[in-house]
What we know:
Blueprint lengths: L2 H26 L1 H4 L7 H13 L6 E5 L7 H7 L5 E6 L2 H13 L10 E5 L11 E6 L8 H14 E12 L2 H8 L2 H21 E7 L6 E7 L6 H12 L1
Helix pairs in contact: 3-4, 6-8, 6-9, 8-9
Amino acid sequence: MDDWTTSHDRVLAQRNAEGWMFLIEAARDLRTTGAITPSSKALARLLTDPVQEHGTQPLNVLEAGAGTGSVTRTLIPRLSPGSRLDIVEANARFASRLRRLVHTHPRLAGESERVRVHHGLVEELDTDHPYDVIVSGLPFTNFTPTQVETIMNRYMELLHPGGTLTYFAYRGTRYARTLTSSRAEARRHRAVEEVLAGYQRLYATGRWTVWGNLPPADVWQLRRPLHASVSTALDVAAGAAR
C-alpha cells in the first residue's frame, strides 16, 4: 500500500467520523450544532478568502462556531506569518476536537500558541484586541432575533474599522420551516432573516452561492465602516433591522 493510498484512506475516515459526529450532536442539540454535515471545501474557501486577500500582513482572526474544524483546516494554512487565530465553539465536544486539531496540525508545529480555542459563546468572548477578519459558522436561523442581533452587534464591536465578517446561510430553510414547523417557528425564522437583512443592506460587500454544499449555502461578506464609530454603526444597524 503506497503513501497516497494510506493518506487518502485517512482523509476519508476523518470525513466519515466528522459526518457521524455532526449527526450525533445535531440530534443532541440542533440549536448549537446547526448542521447535519460539515462545511464543504468550496464553502470553507469562500468563508476564509478575506484572510488570504491581506497577503503577508499579520492578522488577528476570529472563527466562531467552528464545529469539527472543516473550515478551520482551510483557515490555518491561509494565516500569514505572525497572525493569531481565536476559535470560539459553544459545543464542548467540538471544542475538545478543535484543540486536538490545533495541537496536531502540521502548519502549527512548534507554534500552536498562535491559535487558541475558547469553549463558550462568542458574544461572551473576553478579549482586549480587535480582529481584522471574523469567520462565522453560527446557525443564525436556529436562534431568536434578539440573539442574532446581539451576536451581530458583538461582531461589529470586535472588528477593526474596515475589518471583514463572513458568514453563511443555507438556502431554502425558510420554505422548509414553513412546511414542517409551527407558525411560531416560521415567524421566528422570518424575523431572524429580517435582522440579518438590516446588516446586509448597510454593510454587505458581496454574496456568493455554493451549490455544491449540502445543503447549498449563500456566503455573505460584510465590512465594518472605516469612519463610523461603533455605537453609531450599531444604532443604525439596529434601526434598519427593525
